[in-house]
């Protein structure tokens, strides 16, 4: 396909969802579909290889049940949590290939309006994002604890998982340390992958066809329902996370803050869920875990979706997350000297990124 021989300046200030419009060849009608299809193809291949490799590895290990820790949904199992996070992390290379091959444009165009990773954005607002995320996790835990301990279904599920692993005993210190290492390594990769695909690609795909950012935000909310448990305790935090992350991407002009937010929500919620498993606080945080987990993984469902503590935790997390998002928009406006509702756009003096040649 013919490309412009040289980059050209953008005629108007370009917000993040409209980055594909910087060059006509990036904004043709089929491009968003090709980007999504290429992303899905790479993800399916990678996920299939990961699952088959995991099962084969467990099958050859002496004395290991291939189903143990993989399908149990045990929040304290390093294997189960690690596999779910690894599945989510696969969205990162899949999204990169989708943008580069399907969209036929530089990867930087999906990171930010400046077509690069903006460290200054994280330096300015990163501490606020982390602090706000910790408040969200704390709200979910407190709300679940106030409602009461996990109900009988949750207790029964925990007992069944515990008896399979070893007479219902609490996880060992070694297991918790292994879990912490797995979470700290893989959670940021999952967050980057989910934001790249579920927010970045989706927002810009919608912006290729429709200029209003509302279309992209609604699309991001819709796709987060795919492969996720459709119960109130899961849907409320999942939809809230999707909308808040999409709004932050539009407002900040990139994925730096959404990735930081999702990472800061995922790491502490997974650790608290493991440490407080079987309690009301653990059930409340588990709803948040299900909301931020990758679709189609064991983390995107609850062992006891009817638990009142899970519903309370999901609602509390959603309310606090909305407030934190509004606060971040205000802080960003003060940092840039603009209104909280004025999106960060691509400077008009920047030329469009170079066309992809091969």
Chain-wise SSE layout:
Elements: E1 14-15, H1 30-60, H2 78-89, H3 91-102, H4 108-111, H5 119-147, H6 152-166, H7 173-209, H8 213-223, H9 232-252, H10 256-275, H11 280-292, H12 308-336, E2 345-346
Antiparallel strand pairs: 1-2
Helix pairs in contact: 1-3, 1-7, 2-7, 3-7, 5-10, 5-11, 5-12, 7-8, 7-9, 7-10, 8-9, 9-10, 9-11, 9-12, 10-11, 11-12
Shape: globular
* Termini separation: 10 Å
List the strand order in the largest sheet. Answer: 1-2
**Main pleated-sheet profile:** 2 strands, antiparallel
Query: What is the residue-mean pLDDT, rounded to a whole number?
Result: 87
Order of helices and strands: EHHHHHHHHHHHHE
Residue windows where pLDDT falls under 50 for at least 5 positions: 1-11, 152-168
Strand content: under 5%
The number of distinct β-strands equals 2
Rounded to the nearest angstrom, the radius of gyration is 21 Å
Helix content: 55-70%
Total of helices: 12
Number of domains: 1
Structural class from helices and strands? mainly alpha
Descriptive tags:
single chain, 358 residues, mainly alpha, two-stranded antiparallel sheet, 12 helices
